Amino acid sequence: MKGRLVVPTTPPPSPDEVSSTAEFVAALRRLRDWSGQTYRQLTRRAQTAGDILPPSTTVTMLSRPSLPREELVSAFVRACGLDEAAAARWVAVRGALASNSTSGGGTPPIPHEGRWRAPERDVVPAMLPTDIADFTGREEHVTALCQHLLGLDQDTRRHHATPVATISGMGGVGKTTLAVHVGHRLTAAYPDGQLYVNLRGVETSPLRSGDVLAKFLRALGVDSRMIPADEAERAELFRTHLAGRRVLLLLDNAASEEQVRPVIPGTATCAVLITSRSRLAGIEGARRVDVDVFPPAAALRLLAAVAGGDRVTAEHLDAMQIVTLCGGLPLAIRVAGARLAGRPAWRLGHLATMLDDERRRLDWLATGDLAVRASLTLSYQALDERARGLLRLLSVFDLPDFPAWFVAVVLEETLASGTAHAEALVDAQLLNAIGTDVCGQQRYRIHDLVRLFARERATEEETGEAVVEALRRGFGGWLAVAERMARHMPGPCYAAISGPARRPLMDWSHPDLSAPDPGLWFDAERATLLSTIRQACVLGYDDVAFDLAGCMEKYFDVRGMYRDWADVNAEVMSVCQAAGNRLGEAVMLRGLIDLTTWIDDRPSGDAMSRQHDEAARLLEMFTQLRHEPGMSDAAVMCAWALVAAGDHSAAAARAREALQLAERSDHRGGRIRARLALSLISYEQGRFADAALLTEMLDEARALNNPRWVATVLQFAGTALADLGHFVRSHQMLHESLSIAQRHGDTYTEVFTLVGLARLYLRRGASTARETAEAAVRLSRAYHMTHHLAEALLLLGEIELTEDHPAEAIDRLEESVALWRTRGWHSLHATALERLGHAYARTGSPAAQQAFDEARAISARLVTAEHASPPTLLPPPDAD
């Protein structure tokens, strides 16, 4: 009968003869047939042995053409009825196959000769916080949640929906602790990853669903530049990436159903665990677990785990009084236990007496917040005054977490002293040490309830002036470090423009501040920096906000976080406008102009004409401020827009003005940008030898310590050399540019260099021209680089014509022409139309004449623009 336990009479299948992954999986299927067990029976037998082997996991393991995880093989073999020795043999064979499949691997070489590819990242996120070693109680809840999230309860079997469970209860009752513990129990059942986020539901500004989706997509390996701006599109992409994968989501501290609903996957292979103060009754089909305070036995076990079992046993009655006065609230018990653990000479009766005073008049069970406040007050008053002051001052910052050096800055002490005070708060359970970040910095986080409590104490015990000074010190610390890191990031070489906010003295010799890779540092501090900028905006610290936002521009650029960049600059610019901060407004506008000109997927308009108008306004603003480096940056922007319009004489005048301003103010990046603009003008006029002289700027570009601009100079000079017929040297320079861009993940520069390489290959008749151009098309399309895409499509259309594929050329060139209409770069628009005319002519289409006529009309306007009078130069700032 099916499902009845059958004792096999034949020897079990052996893995000894398998030589491939497919054969290994086939052998596992034969082993299951030999055992006579159903998938459910295998699950129950695995549970009896202490293993987790859900039916869906077994089905997936036996149907996929890939090696299953080692622990799943071991659990499966044992569930089939074999002993530990046999299980070890199967695991050994599986390990040998895995080793063979990865031997000979290594890091792929940098693409050469146009052989470009972008491998997908096979990312398995493991974002769960550390499990609590002394986790106590909640056995029934743990069992119920595991059963539901594994799909083993009746309701989940009946429906093909994502298993969702919610944990609700008062603040401090241990919702997160329970959820994290359950999550770690289930990691083997969700081998494709575990995602975690603190939604900050108890804060005034909970996380937005769109930000959570972006965080999770990045954790799953999606490049920031591939993440849509629209929240609904992000949700669709997230569900697509989770389809068919076994991933566990832990959404901690949810504010509402609306906040979490977009983050719930659309597949039954995933599971979601949510914690919240409210019951989230609107989450359809969720298994709801309400967590109450501990009963006395569990409360005593927790106290013993934290304070020491021998002490609790020896002073049982006093221990009972302590947990009774704590109201059975886990957070309060843990704080009290930590006090005892830190003071081994105390008797438990002493602490019980402390709890039994007027501070305990509030009825803990009547209101959870009062209970938490009373418990935290006990811990707070046991601290020395310096630690109390630190807690109060830390609480005024809206930071998700922070590194150890930040504590020292707030206290105006050394890093060693600041760390010692922070660890004292950790010992008191008032600060959480959450481990090290990607830069190796120790990080801390204040629990939401502790932050609220500490802010109340700051209101009562700190003067307004003390709070303001602490904020200025903290904000200044972030500015000092961010400025230092930004200097070594690749990206735009604008003038670094700072505001008047104070920077504290920093110990730059400390490894946390001297050793980090700048890109990794910004990765680690991104959320913290954004929180600081937003708090500065709310509090009216416009000088801090624009300065810190400016420090992040190169990071946003090279990481492709264009939506973050646009949102931050727009918000800060609005604050600066309201405050009358013209310098801050100008700096934010400068970044926005660059962003919206080159990274722009709007379907209509004239991007370069818009740049000219906005850059002219920016030039006027910097001129009124008498800020020569800023004037140089704006003048170069104007020059590029004028080149696009075909007004080369006016463009040259602006570029020479920018060069003069840069030289006068020692703005080295400005000199390079102005020289590059002049080189571009020479190139547009067909004076390729003049354009190739840009190679003289290579040493100065390298001295900037900005890889973006070394790659850019190599790119432009290499392109000009190709037009002069110096193919070998052009090839060397373009490949060096490509290597630099790829090494730093600078896709913006990479795409332009790929276009230059593809054009070089086309000139040389190399077969690699097509695949290189196609790579440029793929990248620019994926990252919304409209100008790059238009140029890459133009080149690909030319390749199609060269290979006598006029129909394919028409498709490419029609799209390129449509894009050039929105760009406003007229010479390239005319070129695309002329190539389109030739493509139509080869098919005998009358559309050829229309394309030729439009190309001639644009060329005629360019001739007219070239002979227009140059603009009147703005007077230098010191003129009358």
Largest sheet: 5 strands, parallel
In round numbers, the mean pLDDT is: 85
The helix content is: 55-70%
At the fold tier of CATH, the topology name of one domain is Serine Threonine Protein Phosphatase 5, Tetratricopeptide repeat
CATH superfamily assignment of one domain?
A: Tetratricopeptide repeat domain
Work out the helix count.
Answer: 42
How does this model look, in words?
- With 880 residues, the chain is mainly alpha-helical.
- Among the domains are: 21-102; 139-290, Rossmann fold, CATH 3.40.50.300; 627-866, Serine Threonine Protein Phosphatase 5, Tetratricopeptide repeat (Alpha Horseshoe).
- The protein is 62% helix and 4% strand.
- The chain has 42 helices and eight strands.
- Strands 2-3-4-1-5 form a five-stranded parallel beta sheet, with helices on both faces.
- α11 links the parallel β3 and β4.
- α14 runs parallel beside α16.
- It starts with 20 loop residues before the first helix and ends in a 14-residue tail after the last helix.
- 48% of the residues are buried.
Layout of SSEs?
Blueprint: H1 21-35, H2 39-48, H3 55-63, H4 70-79, H5 84-102, H6 139-149, H7 154-158, E1 164-168, H8 175-185, E2 194-198, H9 209-219, H10 231-242, E3 248-254, H11 257-260, E4 271-276, E5 287-290, H12 296-307, H13 309-314, H14 316-325, H15 330-342, H16 348-355, H17 368-381, H18 385-394, E6 402-403, H19 404-411, H20 415-427, E7 432-436, E8 442-445, H21 448-461, H22 464-486, H23 511-514, H24 518-539, H25 542-551, H26 553-559, H27 562-579, H28 582-598, H29 607-624, H30 628-645, H31 648-664, H32 668-684, H33 688-692, H34 698-703, H35 707-723, H36 727-743, H37 747-764, H38 768-782, H39 786-802, H40 806-823, H41 826-842, H42 847-866
Helix pairs in contact: 2-3, 2-4, 4-5, 6-8, 9-10, 12-14, 12-15, 14-16, 15-17, 18-20, 18-21, 19-20, 19-22, 22-24, 22-25, 24-25, 24-27, 25-27, 25-28, 27-28, 28-29, 28-30, 29-30, 30-31, 30-32, 31-32, 32-35, 35-36, 35-37, 36-37, 37-38, 37-39, 38-39, 39-40, 39-41, 40-41, 41-42
